[in-house]
Specification:
There is one protein chain. This protein is of the alpha+beta class and 465 residues long. It folds into two domains: 163 residues, Immunoglobulin-like (Sandwich), CATH 2.60.40.10; 263 residues, no CATH class. Helices cover 48% and strands 14% of the residues. The strands form four sheets. A four-stranded antiparallel sheet has the order 3-4-8-7, with no helix packed on it. Helix 4 packs antiparallel against helix 8 and helix 9 packs parallel to helix 12. It is elongated, with a radius of gyration of 36 Å.
């Protein structure tokens, strides 16, 4: 008994591929009944052999509008078909559509069963004047190169209006069809176009960054020694491209870089997929507007946390390393030596929006939408981030006051070297300022230099190699 069950299961599994392919060799319309014969109820479907014979012996009579390929991963056509004059609006709304394609180069009067490939027509929303259909053809785009096809749209009527002969009901008789040539792109080629666009843009930025930050790279090579990357490999880091003039990876610049590259790649992909210049949705424009506005305002507030006289004193005494700073990934979320939650929030929501643009925008960039709540959160995060940069920071304010105190004590000692009180004030301020300098400047702070600093000590300017 067990052997019989296993044998039946194996036969059922072997028959699955054939059963799955069977519907593709027929359409859900009955063959047209010759005019000299009474109408008869059909079988509900039409095999490809009969359909090829019908297409070979009849002319298209269905007015067809634009046919365009969408950017979806599965080859999908959007077909606009107008209502024929001989069809009433009620019949038009109850019409049933099928679609097939055959390769370009085959004569329209020499079609055979094997030449036709059936598509899946998604349920349309008919209008009295015209209807736009979406048809999936998963088998017509393979490999890398685009291909030429002829798409055939079939109009089938199911006469179920009041007063109609019930024998005709559910007949779905093929009444008319339309034929139009079509050029179909491939998913691989379109994806390659998007990726190459991003790569080309990024390489241009990297080459520019390598020239602009040559001095910074030379300093980094000294620090890293034999493990230092090449100049181009160093410039390929997003932190290098998105850094500001002080060597910090700017969050606002990173956001602009991220959205620019993502949108450029998606735009190139959609254009390669559809052959048209795609329109940008309102969500994309809003996202770019919020990001660019935040970046512009952040640059207006960009600057050193130190007052100029205090910064010059730190550099002149050697307490602050004058060599170029190397940008780091932690710059995106760090501020004044601590994690800034407003930066974390802005970064996370930006990454969510970029991923959504890649996942959903590639399928329909023109109608891509972000939830209003997410757009609002990105806007709030940008506003809080910019406001935090514009407002005076407690640590910077405290550090400027401490440096002003040590500079004042140094001036008094230099004016009167015998002033013990001034020297004691200088040493007290020198010992107290270390923690603040470490918090703000981290690795650029030379603690050993501060410990041995005496009034009037200065270091010579660095000599360029």
């Amino acid at each position: 008994m067990l052997r019989w069950i296993i044998a039946v299961l194996l036969l059922a599994l072997a028959a699955l591929p054939a059963a799955a392919q069977a519907p593709s060799r027929a359409i859900q319309c009955s063959a047209p009944v010759p005019g000299d014969q009474p109408w008869r109820v059909g079988s509900g479907f039409m095999v490809m052999e009969d359909l090829a014979r019908h297409l070979n012996t009849s002319a298209p009579a269905l007015p067809l509008g634009p046919v365009r390929q969408t950017s979806k991963a599965v080859p999908t056509l959007e077909i606009t078909v107008a209502r024929p004059d001989w069809l009433t609006p009620a019949e038009w709304r109850n019409a049933f559509f099928e679609a097939v394609v055959y390769a370009d180069g085959i004569s329209p009067v020499a079609l055979r069963e094997g030449d036709l490939q059936r598509g899946t027509v998604l349920p349309p929303t008919p209008r009295d004047a015209e209807t736009t259909l979406s048809v999936l053809f998963p088998t017509i785009a393979h490999g890398w190169l685009p291909s030429s096809w002829h798409v055939v749209l079939l109009l089938c009527l199911d006469p179920i209006q009041e007063g109609a002969n019930q024998l005709r009901a559910q007949g779905r008789e093929l009444r008319a069809y339309a034929r139009q040539p079509l050029f179909v792109s491939t998913l691989r080629l379109s994806t390659a176009a998007g990726l190459l666009t991003v790569l080309a843009a990024y390489l241009v930025l990297a080459f520019a960054a390598a020239r602009i930050h040559a001095r910074q790279y030379a300093h980094g090579r000294v620090l890293l020694g034999e493990g230092a990357p090449s100049a181009l490999a160093y410039a390929l880091r997003p932190t290098v491209i998105a850094q500001d003039s002080f060597g910090y990876c700017s969050l606002s610049r990173f956001q602009v870089l991220l959205f620019t590259l993502v949108l450029a790649g998606v735009y190139a992909y959609v254009m390669g997929r559809t052959g048209e210049l795609p329109e940008l949705s309102q969500s994309v424009l809003t996202l770019l507007g919020v990001t660019l506005t935040g970046s512009t305002l952040a640059r207006l507030t960009e600057g050193s946390v130190m007052q100029t006289p205090n910064r010059l004193w730190l550099l002149g005494t050697g307490v602050l390393d004058p060599t170029p700073r190397l940008p780091r990934w932690t710059d995106l979320v760090e501020s004044d030596g601590e994690i800034d939650v407003t930066r974390v929030q802005a970064l996370l929501f930006s990454l969510f929006a970029a991923v959504a643009l890649v996942v959903s925008g590639t399928g329909d960039l023109e109608n891509f939408t972000l939830p209003d709540q997410l757009v609002t959160l990105i806007g709030i995060s940008q506003a809080v981030y910019v406001a935090g940069r514009a407002l005076p920071r407690d640590s910077a304010k405290r550090l400027n006051e401490e440096i002003a105190s040590i500079r004042s004590a140094e001036s008094r000692v230099l004016a009167d070297p015998a002033d013990a009180i001034a020297r004691k004030d200088f040493e007290t301020a020198r010992n107290a300022i270390a923690s603040s300098l470490r918090d703000v400047f981290s690795e650029r702070f030379c603690e050993s230099r501060l410990r041995g600093l005496q009034p009037g000590d200065r270091v010579p300017p660095p000599v360029e190699a």
